[in-house]
Amino acid sequence: MLDLKTVRERPEWVEARLKTRSGHYDLTTFYALEAEKRELQAKTEKLQARRNEISRAVGRMKANKEDAAELLTEMATLGPLLKETEGALRTKEEDLQSELARLPNLPAEEVPIGPNESGNVVLRSWPEGFKQTTPATWTPLNHWDVGERLGILDFASAAETVGARFTFFRGAGARLIRALTAFMLDLHTLEHGYEEILPPFLTNKESLFGTGQLPKFEEDLFCLRDEPFYLIPTAEVPLTNMVRGQIIDESRLPIKLTAWTACFRREAGAAGRDTRGLIRQHQFDKVELVWITRPEESMEALESLTSHAETVLKRLELPYRTVALCTGDMGFASAKTYDLEVWLPGQGCYREISSCSNTLDFQARRMKARLRRTETKVVEPVHTLNGSGVAVGRALVAVLENYQQADGSVVIPDALRPYLGGISLLKPTM
RNA sequence: GGAAGGAUGGCAGAGCGGUUGAAUGCAACGGUCUUGAAAACCGUCGAGUCGCAAGGCUCCGUGAGUUCGAAUCUCACUCCUUCCGCCA
């Protein structure tokens, strides 16, 4: 949620910033609503003040056994009028709020301006001097071919029992998912200082509003038929909402949380895209990183958080690059986003494996998550950040494609071996 | 699922329908005292919103109702606690 004051006081700046995003945002109805609302508010409060005055006077007169008939007559007309005005104000406020809630965050000043992903800027690649070459003597396979030959990915069974965009991981495949998850959680908790959380995989409307998935992106979510719950599309939702409604002592910040969860997405707008393989599933595992910070430290925190996600890929020795998303490609709540894209030799391209965002106070305002300054006692919104550290399914894709050998076998990355009970090589079964 | 109780400020915990935005305690902050600290004492101490300001208005789980006036009365809902049943 944008700060109402900023939107009101710097309209041309806000509009210019919004214009750099994809989609167009017209603020004229917003400003009209805002003006009407303030007028109504002034009127309502004047009436309320009078009502309070009268009831105080009536109380005093009754105590003194005086006659309050005249005041009661005034209330007879003022009462209904007030009720009507209050109702109108309330409606207007709701309209205004829902206008405001539909506006995305303003991109930070340093974010490159661009219309879509073509405007993104590659900041760095790892390892340095990495060449996107493929072996001369053999052609790397797609991960789904690698996985099926190893007997660890079973798409057919999933299609049968559930439908498209689901997978059964079998044997070493299931174990690899578990190993990747444990490796990432250990890294973040033991070396990067995060608290591990195991949150609920269901959430409610309020939390989804807090992080910005609702009201605009309902069609991306799975919801239950008989209960008012949604399946989480990312652990960002429960983790960030842990501080919802709270006033946190400045001394307790930053709060750094990590969690493994399954994530559930409708992928409603992605029909026909990435239909094969693990890249775009309705359910996938992800290790998430969330920071709750003081405003002045959030941009630095974004660099740390991103480096923590990068460390996962470095330890797994997976080539990747770090990309600054441009204004046209950023998510709704984000003010600044870095994507990590991992190299997939089987497909000959880089694919997103992590997305790290600073939402500044955008989610905090929606959640009413605030901090209290130690010195001044002033209360102000916290800043929230989130990032994947990293997507587990896509990490498996990257391992399968990068570690495959000419004979169809897959070498287990060193970092994962402690989690795989000594397995160091997966051999094809067919 | 059944029964009972509860929901008030950072926490604890009062609150005859009318200066109660809310006693009291703790915590916190400022000060006095002290070489320093502790203790003691004095003071400050909820959030939001409108306004240049003075000041006004809103908020005691949520919504509706009764009333001139509701934290306080009525109804519905939500959540929490305890007991019973069921259950991974």
Descriptive notes:
This protein is α+β, with helices and mostly antiparallel strands. The protein has 2 domains: 26-102; 117-426, Bira Bifunctional Protein, Domain 2 (BirA Bifunctional Protein, domain 2), CATH 3.30.930.10. It is built from 12 helices and 17 strands. The strands form 5 sheets. It has an 8-stranded mixed beta sheet with strand order 1-10-11-12-15-9-8-4. It has a 3-stranded mixed beta sheet with strand order 7-13-14, with no helix packed on it. Strands 2-3 form a two-stranded antiparallel sheet. A hairpin with a 4-residue loop joins β11 and β12. The chain is elongated, with a radius of gyration of 27 Å. It binds one RNA strand of 88 nucleotides through residues 38, 41-42, 44-46, 48-49, 51-52, 54-60, 62-63, 68, 71-72, 74-76, 78-79, 247, 249, 368, 370, 372, 374-375, 377, 379.
Which structural class do you get from the secondary structure elements?
Answer: alpha+beta
Looking at the structure, the CATH topology of the largest domain is BirA Bifunctional Protein, domain 2
CATH H level, superfamily name of the largest domain? Bira Bifunctional Protein, Domain 2
Total domain modules = 2
Q: Specify the CATH architecture of the largest domain.
A: 2-Layer Sandwich
Quick recap:
The protein is α+β, with helices and mostly antiparallel strands. 39% of the residues lie in helices and 20% in strands.
